[in-house]
Amino acid sequence: MKVKEPKIVAFLCNWCSYAGADLAGVSRIQYPPNIRVIRVPCSSRVNPLFILKALQEGVDGVLVAGCHPGDCHYISGNYLARRKFTIFKNLLDYLGIEKDRVHFTWISAAEGARFAEIVKEVTERVKKLGPVKRLVKNRSA
Amino acid sequence: MQSVENRIKEKAAELLTTKKVDLLIGFERGTMPLRASPAFIYDEADIEKLAWNSFCEMNLARYLTRITSKRVGIIAKGCDSRAIAALVVEGQVKREQIMIIGVPCPGMVDRRKIEKEIKGEIDKVEEKKGEIIVKGNNFEKVFKKNNYLYPCCKVCKHGNPSIYDILIGEKVKENSKVDEYAEITEYEKKSPDKRWEFFEKEVSKCIRCYACRQACPMCYCEECFVDSFHPKWVDKSLDFSDIAIWHIMRVYHQTGRCVSCGACERACPMQINLRFLTEKINKDVKVYFNFEAGLDLSVNPPLAAFDIKDREDFIDTC
Q1: Of B66, B77, B172, B306, which sits with the fewest C-beta atoms within 10 Å of its C-beta?
Q2: Per DSSP, what are the bridge partners of residue B135?
Q3: A98 lies in some domain
Q4: 3 state SS of B284
């Protein structure tokens, strides 16, 4: 049976991770076409509600990426994001939502190759989980 | 406890007559037995209404963000005072506007537990040295108070007010050895599927009345994300995903702010176990950031602060 290709939403910070993705593009590095990029000003702009909403709408995986600690364009945005997501990720796991659905990472503007690696890794892990079921809205009801 | 009640009345009279406060928020006897309700005293004539017993369970800090009086006196148990402190830290109320009358709290009694054991109508409730005597038409039953406390009161470590201007009554001996997160640690050991099953079971009971939000002292947003129409985040439906998102986000918004007063759980008409959510957040905040809400006015809430050395073991490193 053919495995259904997962859809993954990637929230990329404007200053590092998005530029990292761009670098991967202009360097012609191959990576799975499963991700849909949403550009955000900073990783701390990502409200956990965005992630839940994405899962509810049937997205199979979510990736959030920001500047490495210390490199934030807004000085401390990614430190604040780190605290937020520490709590949020633990909460999701606690409720029983698969750990590999939601990923967080740091990608700098120079790490085009790393961006491709991360996307590969995340896509593989999400594929292993299969399509998202928990939290998906039942439209027919 | 009678004496504490009288002393509260005395203090209230003093504060109101000397115009030190314009409004005093306290408790009065409810219209039903086994219940108390919040009392708003503007006038000395109403002071007799004030009560203090084992059913003063509401978190009065809830009202501070909604009132317009200039100087407010408030009766505060341990959890109320913590909520007030947290509200002060968040800039929602001014410390100098609030006269906190601290009353050490030995724990409040879960009326639902008592009601379950009684058939027939309850006419009268009396309290004597750690015992609750419930009288009805042709029965009289004695309950040991300590066995009928609310779950949050059973493991409470902060019965004494964290901040106060006046303290009434003897400080209670706080149970510092109890592990308030024991239940959560136990729950974490279950498999993800089992946890999801439990979450699904509990949350499906929800009728989206938002009583948990209304009762919570820390939920003061002018517009809650769940009420927002533009953008509309959560549909007004009874679809499980919508209910689940409401509960996940509600508890997430409590990060480093929840004072474990149990108001949400008591307010819930469907008796959803909400503690298993809020306590998880409290536990993580304690473990990761070594923080408990409402104990210290000089410390910022954890999500409004950061440390360069914060743990990041959840970050993917490929």
Answers
A1: B66
A2: B124, B140
A3: yes
A4: helix
Which residues sit opposite A105 in a β-bridge?
A65
Low-confidence ranges of chain B (pLDDT < 70): 1-2, 318
Indicate whether A139 belongs to any domain. no
Contact A48 B233 (CB under 8 A): no
Domain count, chain A: 1
Minimum-distance CB partner of A118 among B239, B252, B318: B318
What pLDDT, on the 0 to 100 scale, is given for residue B130? 87
Structural tokens at position B165 = 């201007």
- CA B131 – CA B154 distance, rounded (Å): 16
From the list B82, B283, B110, the residue with the least C-alpha distance to B183 is B283
Domain that holds residue A50: 13-129
**Reported pTM:** 0.94
A124 occurs within a structural domain? yes
Mutate to test the interface with B, among A72, A87, A125 (most CBs of B within 10 A): A87
ipTM of the complex: 0.95
Alpha-carbon separation of residue A87 from A117, B170, B244, B283 (angstroms): 26, 37, 17, 10
